[in-house]
């Protein structure tokens, strides 16, 4: 059996912070603290969670925009996290990214043609100048933008169109995996639907795997095959979409799902209102990191950290409760 | 309005049409191109025009009714401004009008050269310290050290080590100005590195030199240009100060600082010797600063707050 | 009589690219104690509408016309001094980003106190007591300690609670909430929405809720008005609008939002998209503003801008073709 496209093993990323103006660099932000998952070819895995849970840091670690503190990122059997510069370049082609902000993710001084040509040139994908032009033009068709727009600069486009350019740039490298870091979060409702549909079409057409990082649970449910729920740098639940959305097991997943306001007036909703705020990732709580807000926390949760354990064929939960709490049902 | 439509074309029965609303604002004709830009940014227009006039004066000094600015005429010492000597003559009988016009050459050469050299050096140092982590600490501590010394004192010290010449003045002031530019470039580079498009370029396999060339440098040019105008203005003042205290351009070269230094002793009785070079210096610095402020507002309205 | 009546509100701006008709002929009313939601996408004019109500539009480059009658007085005719007395007192506002709307160098207690001392003429002691009362009301634990803290010491959710406390301190008759939960995480959003629902019952202020999130609308509003390209295109009660939207834009908007749990029931796999882009408001638009993206468009629409007409019980929409009378869901 071939290895999965991407394997992430016990990934950790800690950022040093200065305590005070002249303080020593002793404190650390535990942004990602032991995260493991796999992505198969052509599959969409979503990372969901609230701001500061470390989901974007995982995405950046996979792109190797920085060196990880510990753990492994393995693409198709080869490690990305300690790859040499030349090996890394070859792997970069296979993993691309689409960012959240369609305004700052494109260099304002470059023409669309040059933005799209950059990865093609970098990876030597075009055989000739004519081939390069043909590839750039066909990318515009793929993301449904007019070819005439190639000579324009990013500020001449609307948010949705810029996001299409960002997607075209990611596709230019002919990747196998695209990290979508809140790729549709900044877009308006009607444009968001256009981009979501486009991403789904492209996934089918090119057999792409997607790591879909988002806080928008409704979009995630629409897009994804499997979901990993993160809280304070750790995965608390990892399961296929059906299990997560029909029968969430972790109290945090339940709270998260129950908190989403539904566009149905008078819907019988009983949101689980969590107490307080997310604790600081500089001093994460002992034991289970969710125990300070969990309605079901008991003594063991405060001391012992729960490990991810299988509760179904492909469902993993990090919780000490034997049975999922019955407090809330979708 | 609806009535006029109805007369030309019968409306379908029962059609509800939105009421016509008045226009609240009259559109203004927007001029495009250079004229439009200058109209929108009058400070750029005024500062630029003044500066161009001064540069032309410097270039065409020999043809503007001047005589040899170094020609001594002991018989015609300290004459007041008159039809023959528009700005009067100094203690050695030299024509101040000619000396002031030729002096524009020195000031503008020093100002523009320092702006260009300090920007180039600052850009290089700033980019290196923005990208090379180990070099950053060393370079920035060194710059901090230089910044601890007032630029004018640093320039005086450097001039003390060398022979007075326009070239050495440029070099000394450039060195004194570099720390400020490299600090600015470094901060701009660091904020640009955080931009998602730079991350995207890294993910696209772009090598670091190309990232700097294609994604970082073009986006530092706007703040650099503004900073360069301020450096130009401050370099002209520093040059005048150096020359005034005798540590700048040699006395044989007419510069505004030199002329003022020579008139210093007679300030109370012959104020015009100091007045004319001082007025030219003020107008030039004002022109450059106006240009800089205008460019700052025009290139990036948000930067107005940062600088 | 309605608490607030807005008639033909127009807010235009002079921009380098031409005259931006950000709001062009919007009329609506808010009854006492009622919650009206204004929904639309970015650039539809919903925030400009709310800023115009408070007269917070700089003139120039802006210009406001029409009438804004609040408790019988036209706010657009008031002198600045009287308008200042209304702002923060009879009408108050909460913004999307609580960090930038709080002053970072003043304690939260002082910021609440100042509003009270300025508008209600309370002395310092009375204002302090009231400030602690307000923090308790918005569910901030240990209010006696929190009044002495600075905004940066509070989390995002806490700051939004403080903003609400300041907004409610003077018992306003009307509260304008501009995307109050958009910057917050979903579990914190749930807390704030619950707080707003509780306060609605206890305080009794009318609320204008400005949002792009249809879920939030369904949660707390009673009536909705949908804006598109600076115009009002539809208005109805929340239940009616979600049950039977009449305007093609509203229908598109509702179809474009995936619903949590929809994949479990095996609903359709593809989101309904509204093709195209929002029109450029700097160019005059003849005919219907939605004509460029509408599936029902005809020449009639391109020529004649539809007026708002009654399409159902207390349900109006601006469309030549939207069905009239009862519509089954």
TrEMBL record, chain A:
Keywords: ATP-binding, Nucleotide-binding, Transport. One of its GO terms (cellular component) is plasma membrane. Belongs to the ABC transporter superfamily. It is a peripheral membrane protein. GO terms for biological process: peptide transport; transmembrane transport. One of its GO terms (molecular function) is ATP binding. It is found in: Cell inner membrane. This is Peptide ABC transporter substrate-binding protein. The keyword Transport applies. Residues 6-257 form the ABC transporter domain. Pfam families: ABC_tran (PF00005), oligo_HPY (PF08352). It comes from the Bacteria. InterPro entries: AAA+_ATPase (IPR003593), ABC_transp_ATP-bind (IPR050319), ABC_transporter-like_ATP-bd (IPR003439), ABC_transporter-like_CS (IPR017871), Oligopep_ABC_C (IPR013563), P-loop_NTPase (IPR027417). It comes from Bradyrhizobium centrolobii. Involved in beta-(1-->2)glucan export. Transmembrane domains (TMD) form a pore in the inner membrane and the ATP-binding domain (NBD) is responsible for energy generation.
From TrEMBL, chain B:
One of its GO terms (biological process) is transmembrane transport. Keywords: Cell membrane, Membrane, Transmembrane, Transmembrane helix, Transport. It comes from the Bacteria. The chain crosses the membrane at residues 44-64, 108-132, 152-176, 229-249, 269-292. InterPro entries: BP-dependent_transpt_permease, MetI-like, MetI-like_sf. The keyword Plastid does not apply. Residues 108-292 form the ABC transmembrane type-1 domain. One of its GO terms (cellular component) is plasma membrane. It is found in: Cell membrane. Pfam families: BPD_transp_1. It is a multi-pass membrane protein. Belongs to the binding-protein-dependent transport system permease family. This is Peptide ABC transporter permease. It comes from Bradyrhizobium centrolobii. The lineage of its organism: Bacteria, Pseudomonadati, Pseudomonadota, Alphaproteobacteria, Hyphomicrobiales.
Automatic annotation (TrEMBL), chain C:
GO terms for cellular component: plasma membrane. It comes from the Bacteria. InterPro entries: AAA+_ATPase, ABC_Ni/Peptide_Import, ABC_transporter-like_ATP-bd, ABC_transporter-like_CS, Oligopep_ABC_C, P-loop_NTPase. Pfam families: ABC_tran (PF00005), oligo_HPY (PF08352). It is found in: Cell inner membrane. GO terms for molecular function: ATP binding; ATP hydrolysis activity. Residues 4-254 form the ABC transporter domain. It is a peripheral membrane protein. CDD domains: ABC_NikE_OppD_transporters. One of its GO terms (biological process) is transmembrane transport. PROSITE patterns: ABC_TRANSPORTER_1 (PS00211), ABC_TRANSPORTER_2 (PS50893). Involved in beta-(1-->2)glucan export. Transmembrane domains (TMD) form a pore in the inner membrane and the ATP-binding domain (NBD) is responsible for energy generation. Belongs to the ABC transporter superfamily. This is Peptide ABC transporter ATP-binding protein.
């Amino acid at each position: 059996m071939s290895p999965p496209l991407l394997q992430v093993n016990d990934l950790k990323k800690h950022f040093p912070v200065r305590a005070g103006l002249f303080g020593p660099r002793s404190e650390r932000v535990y942004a990602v603290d032991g995260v493991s998952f796999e992505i198969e070819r052509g599959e969409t895995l979503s990372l969901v969670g609230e701001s500061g849970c470390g989901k974007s840091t995982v995405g950046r670690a996979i792109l190797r925009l920085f060196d990880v503190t510990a753990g492994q990122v393995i693409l198709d059997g080869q490690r990305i996290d300690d790859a040499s510069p030349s090996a890394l370049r070859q792997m970069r082609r296979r993993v691309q990214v689409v960012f959240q902000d369609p305004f700052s993710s494109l260099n304002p001084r470059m023409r669309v043609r040059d933005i799209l040509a950059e990865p093609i040139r970098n990876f030597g994908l075009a055989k000739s100048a004519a081939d390069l032009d043909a590839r750039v033009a066909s990318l515009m068709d793929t993301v449904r933008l007019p070819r005439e727009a190639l000579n324009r600069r990013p500020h001449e486009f609307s948010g949705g169109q810029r996001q299409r350019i960002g997607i075209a740039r990611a596709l230019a490298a002919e990747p196998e995996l695209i990290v979508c870091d809140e790729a549709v979060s900044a877009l308006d409702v009607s444009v968001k639907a256009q981009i979501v549909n486009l991403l789904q079409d492209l996934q089918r057409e090119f057999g792409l795997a997607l790591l879909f990082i988002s806080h928008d649970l409704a979009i995630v449910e629409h897009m994804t095959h499997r979901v990993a729920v993160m809280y304070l740098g750790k995965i608390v639940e990892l399961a296929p979409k059906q299990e997560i959305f029909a029968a969430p097991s972790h109290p945090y997943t339940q709270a998260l799902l129950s908190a989403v306001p539904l566009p149905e007036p008078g819907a019988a909703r009983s949101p689980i209102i969590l107490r307080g705020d997310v604790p600081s990732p500089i001093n994460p709580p002992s034991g289970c990191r969710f125990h300070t807000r969990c309605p079901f926390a008991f003594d063991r949760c405060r001391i012992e950290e729960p490990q991810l354990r299988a509760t179904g064929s492909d469902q993993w939960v990090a919780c000490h409760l034997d049975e999922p709490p019955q407090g809330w049902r979708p | 309005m609806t009535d006029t439509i109805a007369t030309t074309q019968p409306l379908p029965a029962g059609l509800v049409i939105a009421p016509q609303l008045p226009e609240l604002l009259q559109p203004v004709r927007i001029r495009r191109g250079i004229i439009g830009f200058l109209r929108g940014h009058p400070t750029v227009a005024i500062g630029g025009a003044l500066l161009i006039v001064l540069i032309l004066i410097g270039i065409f000094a020999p043809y503007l009714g001047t005589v040899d600015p170094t020609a001594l005429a002991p018989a015609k010492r300290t004459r007041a401004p008159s039809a023959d000597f528009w700005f009067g003559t100094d203690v050695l009988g030299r024509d101040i009008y000619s000396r002031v016009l030729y002096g524009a050459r020195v000031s503008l050469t020093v100002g523009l050269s320092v702006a260009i050299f300090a920007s180039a050096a600052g850009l290089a140092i700033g980019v290196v310290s923005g990208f090379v982590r180990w070099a950053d600490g060393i370079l920035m501590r060194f710059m901090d050290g230089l910044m601890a010394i007032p630029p004018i004192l640093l320039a005086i010290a450097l001039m003390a080590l060398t022979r007075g010449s326009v070239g050495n003045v440029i070099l000394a002031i450039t060195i004194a100005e570099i720390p400020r530019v490299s600090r600015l470039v470094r901060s701009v580079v660091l904020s640009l590195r955080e931009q998602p498009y730079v991350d995207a370029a890294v993910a696209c396999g772009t090598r670091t030199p190309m990232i700097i060339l294609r994604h970082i440098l073009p986006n530092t040019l706007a703040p650099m240009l503004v900073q360069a105008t301020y450096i130009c203005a401050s370099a002209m003042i520093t040059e005048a100060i150096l020359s005034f205290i005798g540590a700048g351009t040699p006395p044989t070269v007419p510069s505004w600082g030199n002329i003022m230094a020579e008139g210093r002793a007679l300030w109370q009785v012959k104020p015009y010797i100091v007045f004319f070079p001082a007025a030219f210096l003020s107008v030039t610095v004002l022109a450059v600063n106006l240009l800089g402020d205008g460019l700052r507002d025009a290139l990036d309205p948000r930067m107005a707050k940062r600088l | 009589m309605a608490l607030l009546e807005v008639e033909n509100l127009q807010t235009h701006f002079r921009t380098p690219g031409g005259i931006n008709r950000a709001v062009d002929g919007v009329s609506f009313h808010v009854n006492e104690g009622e919650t009206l939601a204004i929904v639309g996408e970015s650039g539809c004019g919903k925030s400009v509408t709310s800023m115009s109500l408070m007269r917070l539009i700089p003139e120039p480059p802006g210009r406001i016309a029409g009438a804004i009658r609040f408790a019988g007085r036209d706010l657009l005719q008031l002198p600045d001094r009287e308008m200042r007395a209304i702002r923060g007192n009879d009408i108050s506002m909460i913004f999307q980003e609580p960090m930038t709307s709080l002053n970072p160098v003043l304690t939260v207690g002082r910021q609440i106190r100042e509003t009270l001392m300025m508008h209600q003429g309370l002395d310092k002691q009375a204002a302090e007591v009231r400030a602690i009362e307000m923090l308790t009301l918005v569910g901030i634990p240990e209010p006696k300690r929190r009044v002495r803290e600075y905004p940066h010491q509070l989390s995002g959710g806490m700051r939004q609670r403080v903003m609400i406390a300041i907004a409610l301190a003077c018992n306003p008759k009307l509260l304008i909430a501009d995307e109050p939960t958009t910057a917050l995480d979903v579990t914190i959003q749930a807390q704030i929405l619950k707080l707003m629902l509780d306060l609605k019952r206890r305080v009794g202020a009318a609320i204008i809720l400005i949002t792009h999130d249809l879920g939030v609308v369904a949660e707390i509003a009673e009536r909705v008005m949908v804006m598109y390209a600076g115009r009002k295109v539809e208005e109805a009660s929340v239940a009616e609008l979600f049950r039977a939207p009449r305007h093609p834009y509203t229908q598109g908007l509702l179809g474009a939002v995936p619903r949590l749990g929809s994949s479990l029931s095996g609903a359709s796999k593809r989101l309904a998209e509204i093709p195209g882009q929002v029109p450029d408001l700097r160019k005059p638009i003849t005919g219907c503003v939605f004509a460029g993206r509408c599936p029902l468009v005809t020449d009639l629409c391109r020529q004649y801008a539809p007026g708002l007409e009654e399409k159902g019980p207390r349900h109006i929409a601006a469309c030549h073709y939207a069905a009239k009378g009862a519509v089954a869901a």
